[in-house]
Amino acid sequence: MPTPVALTIAGSDSSGGAGIQADLKTFAACGVYGASVITALTAQNTRGVTGVFPVPAGFVTEQIDAVFGDLEVGAVKIGMVSQQDVIAAIAAGIARWTPKHVVLDPVMVATSGDRLLAPEAVEALRTVLIPLADIITPNLPEAAALLDEPIATGEAEIEAQGRRLLALGCRSVLIKGGHGNGAQSIDYLVTRDTTLALPASRVATPNTHGTGCTLSSAIAAALAKRDDLARAVQFGKAYVTAAIGAADRFAVGHGHGPVHHFHKYY
Questions:
Q1: Catalytic option among 39, 42, 213, 241
Q2: Is the terminal CB of the chain with fewer CB neighbours within 10 Å at N or C?
Q3: Catalytic pick from 176, 177, 178, 237?
Q4: 79 catalytically annotated
Q5: How far apart are CA 101 and CA 134, in angstroms?
C-alpha cells in the first residue's frame, strides 16, 4: 500500500511556527509524508511580519508539476497565496492533476495582525480557488471578509455565513471559533446537508502562532489517510487543540509563540 502523501501549497514562515514549516510538522506528526510548493517567502517571527517576497507564478507551476509528476498525492492543503497570478497557477495545477481532496485555508491576516493577502487577490480567492475546494477553513474575521459582512457573533449568524460561503462553490465550510468569546472555542462544519458544532475548551495562552495552518494541514493529513470529511475535521480539531494546550511547554520568541506540533512525542 502506498505511503499516504499530503502536499502543502503555501508561504514559508522564517520563524518556523506557521506556513510551510507548520504544515510539514503537522503532516509528520500525523503520520503522513509531506511535500511542499512554496508560494512566497516571508520574513517574520513571533512578533510580526516584516517582509513578503512572492515566488513567481511560473516557478509555482514548476513545483506543482514536479511533485504531482512523481508522488501519489492524497490531499492538498492550500494556504497563503498573496498574488493573483499565483492563484491562477495553483488553480491550473489543480485542474491539471485533479487531486482527490483539496483543503483551502484562506489566510488573509497573520496571528500578529499583519495582512498577508493583497487586496486585489481577494476576489481571485473567492472566484478561482474556493470553487475548487472540498473544504475551506476560515476563522470568523476571514469568513466575514470573504463575504464583505460584519463578523458573526452567534451560532445562527455563523451558520448563515457558512451557507453563503458554500454558495461560492466549495463543498463544505469549517468556520473556526478561536476568535470568539466564552469558555469554549466552537468550530462549525457547514455542509449542504447539515451543520456540526465542534466544541473544545478554550486554552488561555498567547502561543497560538500557526493554529490555522496546523488545523487545515491536520485535516488534509487525515484525508490523505482516507478518512471521510467529518472524521478528518474532528481529528484536525482534536489535534490542534492538543497542540495549543501544549504550547506553553515552549519558550520560543517574545510574541505569539508557536503551538507544539509534536506534543505526543516530547
A1: 213
A2: N
A3: 176
A4: no
A5: 6
Distance CA 19, CA 13 (A): 5
Q: Where are the domains of the chain?
A: 5-249
CATH superfamily of 5-249: Ribokinase (3.40.1190.20)
Catalytic residue check, 210:
yes
Taking the CB of residue 31, how many other CB atoms lie within 10 A of it?
12
H-run or E-run covering 132: none
pLDDT in tens, 163-196: 999 999 999 999 998 666 666 889 999 999 999 9
What are the tens digits of pLDDT across the range 229-256? 999 999 999 999 999 999 999 999 999 9
**C-alpha grid cell for residue 233?**
475535521
Catalytic site includes residue 211: yes
Question: Which residue is it, cell 466549495?
Answer: 170
Terminal alpha carbon distance of the chain: 29
Tell me the pTM: 0.95
- Give the cell for residue 70: 512523481
